[in-house]
Amino acid sequence: MIFAYIRVSTDDQTVKNQKDMIERAGYRVDKWLADEGVSGTIDWTKREINVAIEEADEGDTIIVAELSRLGRSLKQILEIVELCQKKKVNIIMIREGIQTNNDSPVNKLLLSILGSLAEMERNLISQRTKDALALKRKNGVVLGRPVGRTTPVEKMKLYPKRKQIIAWREDGISYSEIARRLKVNRITVSKFVHTLELKESV
Protein backbone atom coordinates (compact mmCIF):
# COMPACT_ATOMS: atom_id res chain seq x y z
CA MET A 1 0.00 0.00 0.00
CA ILE A 2 1.22 3.49 -0.83
CA PHE A 3 0.51 6.42 1.50
CA ALA A 4 1.20 10.05 0.61
CA TYR A 5 1.67 12.67 3.32
CA ILE A 6 1.45 16.39 2.56
CA ARG A 7 1.74 19.33 4.94
CA VAL A 8 1.57 23.12 4.79
CA SER A 9 2.34 25.38 7.73
CA THR A 10 -0.31 28.08 7.28
CA ASP A 11 -3.92 28.28 6.13
CA ASP A 12 -2.81 30.61 3.33
CA GLN A 13 -0.70 27.89 1.72
CA THR A 14 -2.04 25.07 -0.43
CA VAL A 15 -1.24 21.37 -0.55
CA LYS A 16 -1.80 21.31 -4.32
CA ASN A 17 1.86 21.79 -5.27
CA GLN A 18 2.98 18.87 -3.12
CA LYS A 19 0.20 16.65 -4.42
CA ASP A 20 1.06 17.54 -8.02
CA MET A 21 4.73 16.71 -7.41
CA ILE A 22 3.85 13.26 -6.07
CA GLU A 23 1.45 12.54 -8.92
CA ARG A 24 3.96 13.70 -11.55
CA ALA A 25 6.47 11.24 -10.10
CA GLY A 26 4.12 8.49 -11.27
CA TYR A 27 3.06 6.97 -7.96
CA ARG A 28 -0.42 5.49 -7.59
CA VAL A 29 -1.35 6.59 -4.09
CA ASP A 30 -3.83 4.46 -2.14
CA LYS A 31 -4.34 6.89 0.73
CA TRP A 32 -3.68 10.63 1.03
CA LEU A 33 -3.06 12.21 4.43
CA ALA A 34 -2.72 15.97 4.89
CA ASP A 35 -1.99 18.53 7.58
CA GLU A 36 -3.08 22.04 6.62
CA GLY A 37 -2.02 24.98 8.74
CA VAL A 38 0.18 22.73 10.86
CA SER A 39 3.80 23.57 11.62
CA GLY A 40 6.47 20.93 11.20
CA THR A 41 7.69 21.82 14.69
CA ILE A 42 4.60 20.15 16.19
CA ASP A 43 5.33 16.65 17.46
CA TRP A 44 4.91 14.20 14.59
CA THR A 45 2.77 11.90 16.76
CA LYS A 46 0.12 14.64 16.76
CA ARG A 47 0.15 14.99 12.97
CA GLU A 48 -1.31 12.91 10.14
CA ILE A 49 2.09 11.38 9.38
CA ASN A 50 1.54 9.33 12.54
CA VAL A 51 -1.63 7.86 11.03
CA ALA A 52 0.33 6.73 7.98
CA ILE A 53 3.03 5.15 10.12
CA GLU A 54 0.53 3.35 12.36
CA GLU A 55 -1.47 1.97 9.43
CA ALA A 56 1.51 1.02 7.27
CA ASP A 57 2.58 -2.62 7.23
CA GLU A 58 5.85 -4.22 6.24
CA GLY A 59 6.60 -3.49 2.59
CA ASP A 60 4.32 -0.44 2.40
CA THR A 61 5.54 2.99 1.29
CA ILE A 62 5.04 6.53 2.58
CA ILE A 63 5.74 9.32 0.08
CA VAL A 64 6.47 12.98 0.83
CA ALA A 65 7.26 15.73 -1.64
CA GLU A 66 10.38 16.69 0.29
CA LEU A 67 12.25 15.98 3.50
CA SER A 68 11.02 19.07 5.37
CA ARG A 69 7.41 17.80 5.18
CA LEU A 70 8.32 15.13 7.75
CA GLY A 71 9.39 17.73 10.28
CA ARG A 72 11.51 20.76 10.97
CA SER A 73 13.98 19.22 13.40
CA LEU A 74 16.61 16.54 12.99
CA LYS A 75 15.22 14.71 16.03
CA GLN A 76 11.72 14.36 14.57
CA ILE A 77 12.94 13.34 11.13
CA LEU A 78 15.24 10.67 12.49
CA GLU A 79 12.54 9.33 14.83
CA ILE A 80 10.19 8.89 11.87
CA VAL A 81 12.84 7.32 9.65
CA GLU A 82 14.09 4.93 12.34
CA LEU A 83 10.57 3.81 13.27
CA CYS A 84 9.70 3.17 9.62
CA GLN A 85 12.92 1.24 9.13
CA LYS A 86 12.04 -0.96 12.12
CA LYS A 87 8.62 -1.63 10.59
CA LYS A 88 10.28 -2.15 7.18
CA VAL A 89 8.20 0.66 5.74
CA ASN A 90 9.86 2.63 2.94
CA ILE A 91 9.83 6.44 2.91
CA ILE A 92 10.33 8.18 -0.42
CA MET A 93 11.36 11.85 -0.49
CA ILE A 94 10.83 12.94 -4.06
CA ARG A 95 12.73 16.23 -4.21
CA GLU A 96 15.83 14.75 -2.58
CA GLY A 97 15.58 11.42 -4.41
CA ILE A 98 15.89 9.42 -1.18
CA GLN A 99 14.39 6.03 -0.35
CA THR A 100 14.93 4.82 3.20
CA ASN A 101 14.82 1.14 2.28
CA ASN A 102 18.20 1.68 0.66
CA ASP A 103 20.67 0.57 3.35
CA SER A 104 23.79 1.82 1.61
CA PRO A 105 26.20 3.88 3.78
CA VAL A 106 25.92 6.74 1.30
CA ASN A 107 22.13 6.84 1.66
CA LYS A 108 22.37 6.83 5.47
CA LEU A 109 24.91 9.64 5.38
CA LEU A 110 22.72 11.64 3.01
CA LEU A 111 19.72 11.27 5.33
CA SER A 112 21.75 12.53 8.27
CA ILE A 113 23.14 15.48 6.32
CA LEU A 114 19.75 16.51 4.93
CA GLY A 115 18.18 16.28 8.37
CA SER A 116 20.90 18.50 9.79
CA LEU A 117 20.43 21.01 6.98
CA ALA A 118 16.67 21.12 7.57
CA GLU A 119 17.25 21.90 11.24
CA MET A 120 19.90 24.50 10.44
CA GLU A 121 17.57 26.17 7.93
CA ARG A 122 14.82 26.40 10.53
CA ASN A 123 17.21 27.93 13.08
CA LEU A 124 18.46 30.48 10.56
CA ILE A 125 14.93 31.51 9.61
CA SER A 126 14.00 31.81 13.28
CA GLN A 127 17.05 33.94 14.00
CA ARG A 128 16.42 36.22 11.02
CA THR A 129 12.83 36.70 12.17
CA LYS A 130 13.95 37.56 15.71
CA ASP A 131 16.54 40.01 14.38
CA ALA A 132 13.97 41.71 12.15
CA LEU A 133 11.46 42.03 15.01
CA ALA A 134 14.14 43.39 17.33
CA LEU A 135 15.05 46.03 14.74
CA LYS A 136 11.40 47.05 14.36
CA ARG A 137 10.99 47.37 18.13
CA LYS A 138 14.14 49.47 18.28
CA ASN A 139 12.66 51.76 15.63
CA GLY A 140 9.44 52.13 17.61
CA VAL A 141 7.24 49.93 15.42
CA VAL A 142 4.26 48.47 17.30
CA LEU A 143 4.11 44.76 16.54
CA GLY A 144 1.13 42.43 16.41
CA ARG A 145 -2.47 42.72 15.26
CA PRO A 146 -4.25 45.83 16.56
CA VAL A 147 -6.39 45.01 19.59
CA GLY A 148 -9.93 44.07 18.67
CA ARG A 149 -9.24 43.52 14.97
CA THR A 150 -9.96 40.10 13.48
CA THR A 151 -10.17 38.70 9.97
CA PRO A 152 -13.68 39.23 8.53
CA VAL A 153 -15.54 35.92 8.67
CA GLU A 154 -16.43 36.23 4.97
CA LYS A 155 -12.73 36.09 4.09
CA MET A 156 -11.95 33.05 6.21
CA LYS A 157 -11.04 29.79 4.51
CA LEU A 158 -13.98 27.82 5.90
CA TYR A 159 -16.69 30.39 5.11
CA PRO A 160 -17.96 28.54 1.98
CA LYS A 161 -18.57 25.48 4.19
CA ARG A 162 -20.26 27.38 7.02
CA LYS A 163 -23.68 25.71 6.63
CA GLN A 164 -22.19 22.23 6.85
CA ILE A 165 -20.04 23.21 9.84
CA ILE A 166 -23.04 24.72 11.65
CA ALA A 167 -25.06 21.56 11.00
CA TRP A 168 -22.27 19.37 12.35
CA ARG A 169 -21.95 21.51 15.47
CA GLU A 170 -25.72 21.32 16.05
CA ASP A 171 -25.39 17.53 15.83
CA GLY A 172 -22.75 17.65 18.56
CA ILE A 173 -19.76 16.94 16.31
CA SER A 174 -16.51 18.05 17.97
CA TYR A 175 -14.08 20.58 16.53
CA SER A 176 -11.49 17.82 16.17
CA GLU A 177 -13.82 15.61 14.14
CA ILE A 178 -14.88 18.52 11.92
CA ALA A 179 -11.21 19.36 11.38
CA ARG A 180 -10.53 15.76 10.39
CA ARG A 181 -13.41 15.73 7.91
CA LEU A 182 -12.35 19.02 6.35
CA LYS A 183 -8.64 18.16 6.53
CA VAL A 184 -7.72 21.32 8.42
CA ASN A 185 -6.32 22.11 11.85
CA ARG A 186 -8.66 22.01 14.87
CA ILE A 187 -7.69 25.59 15.78
CA THR A 188 -8.78 26.74 12.31
CA VAL A 189 -12.25 25.28 12.91
CA SER A 190 -12.69 26.63 16.45
CA LYS A 191 -11.50 30.11 15.43
CA PHE A 192 -13.89 30.17 12.47
CA VAL A 193 -16.89 29.04 14.54
CA HIS A 194 -16.10 31.59 17.26
CA THR A 195 -15.80 34.41 14.70
CA LEU A 196 -19.03 33.31 13.00
CA GLU A 197 -20.90 33.26 16.32
CA LEU A 198 -19.65 36.76 17.16
CA LYS A 199 -20.88 38.07 13.80
CA GLU A 200 -24.32 36.48 14.19
CA SER A 201 -24.72 37.81 17.72
CA VAL A 202 -24.26 41.41 16.60
UniProtKB/TrEMBL annotation:
Q: Which SMART domains match?
A: Resolvase
Q: Name one GO biological process term.
A: DNA integration
Residues forming the Resolvase/invertase-type recombinase catalytic domain are 1-140
Which ranges form a coiled coil? none
Q: Which family does it belong to?
A: Belongs to the site-specific recombinase resolvase family.
**Name of the featured protein:** Resolvase/invertase-type recombinase catalytic domain-containing protein
The family database entries (SUPFAM superfamilies) matched by this protein are listed as: Homeodomain-like, Resolvase-like
Q: Which GO terms describe its molecular function?
A: DNA binding; DNA strand exchange activity
**Cited Gene3D superfamilies:** Resolvase, N-terminal catalytic domain, Winged helix-like DNA-binding domain superfamily/Winged helix DNA-binding domain
